Amino acid sequence: MFSFLVVLMSALQVVICIDDSLLQCNSSCAVYDFKYFVDKLLQQERELSTYQSLTNCSAVALQAQIEAISAELFYPPLNYGGMKYIISKVPFYNADHAIKNCKAFGGYLAEIDDTDEYTALKNYLDITPNVNIVMIAGSDAVTRGTWLFQRTGQPVPVLDWAPKQPTLKGQENCLNLWKDFGGLMMDVACDSVNFDSSFMCELPSVS
Question: Which CATH number does the domain housing residue 87 bear?
Answer without folding.
Answer: 3.10.100.10
